Amino acid sequence: MPSMLNRFARRNAATVDVQIEPIPDSTARQMDQATQQESSPAAPGTRAAAFSVHIFTAMGAGVALIALLEAVREHWAAMFAWLGVALVIDAVDGPIARRLDVARVQPDWSGEVLDLVVDFVTYVFVPAYAITASGLLLPLAAPLLGAGIVVSSALYFADRRMKTADNHFRGFPALWNAAAFYLFLLHLPPALSSLAVAALIALTFVPVNVVHPVRVVRLRGLTLSLLGIWAALAIFALVKDFNVATPVTVGLCAIAAYIVGSDAAIRLVRSFTA
Q: What are phi and psi of 133, to 5 degrees?
């Protein structure tokens, strides 16, 4: 017991001897200013501008409804055109939101959740309807594969590992708008189209890396240039209602192959040269 009391006394004495270095006045002022800046409410105009970005993002859901109405009427080219408008909204709203510091100015509204909701209807739900209702798949398999598209994509959107640290997608990134576009472009026999859709559903859960065509760092200039060429060819195909010459189809397929397989090819080459 006395030894315990002695140890306790020595520990307390050591604690008393500890001196806390004071924070320099300049550092303290900077910390106070940063805290006040974060806690002080933004000006009404700044808040309105920030909230307008959320409205702009949400407009993608309205565009998706218009695309779905065109799909119900079997106006497939018009459906893809509206999905293209939604794609443009999705491409520019993020940089605008970061520019206006929307997350800080409007902390009660989650741009990340809003973006996921809109992306699901534009990238998954409307294309899944088009794939299922277009007659491109085997009649018996179409509803099952359509359900598989939306279920697997919902799980993918909830996966916290869907994006890697080096700006790649992990697994097939639920780009069903692009998959539907190629199904309409190639117009394969229903059995082959059904197999292709089933394979993409399975690849959603396979840990392969697929390059992010916009945020990629490696070969960024080449990738963005090819993406611009792809957009021009895709618009031409829609104007022609998918009745395009073979070189256009080959070009669109070659660019898609690069986007999907470039990372795997680079990794394979590095494994042989290592």
A: -95, -5
3-state secondary structure of 173: coil
Distance CA 13, CA 10 (A): 5
Separation in Å, CA 155 to CA 110, 128, 160, 207, 235: 20, 15, 10, 14, 31
Number of CB atoms found within 10 A of residue 268's CB: 11
Percentage of residues in the chain having pLDDT higher than 90: 49
- Give strand pairing partners of 127: none
What's the N-to-C CA distance of the chain in angstroms? 65
Question: Which residues, at least 6 apart from 254, have a Cβ–Cβ distance to it below 8 Å?
Answer: none
At residue 215 the predicted structure's pLDDT band, cuts being 50, 70 and 90, is low
Q: In the chain, how many H helices and how many E strands?
A: 12, 2
Half-sphere exposure at residue 69, Cβ-oriented, CA atoms within 13 angstroms: 7
Contact 194, 145 (CB under 8 A): yes
- Both tokens of 173, joined, read 């990134």
Give 165: exposed, middle or buried? Use CB within 10 Å, 0-12, 13-18, 19+: exposed
**Residue of 115, 65, 67, 108 whose CA lies nearest to 89:** 115
Query: Considering only CA atoms, which of 96, 99, 111, 100 is closest in space to residue 43?
Result: 100
Model confidence at 67: pLDDT above 50: yes
Query: What is the pLDDT of the chain when averaged over all its residues?
Result: 82
Q: What are the distances in angstroms from CA 148 to CA 28, 89, 196, 204, 246?
A: 56, 27, 13, 11, 32
d(CA 36, CA 145): 54
Cα gap 16→14, rounded to integer Å: 5
Which DSSP helix (H) or strand (E) runs through 87? helix 76-99
**What is each CA distance from 87 to 21, 121, 175, 184, 212, in whole angstroms?**
54, 12, 11, 18, 14
The average pLDDT across 210-239 equals 81
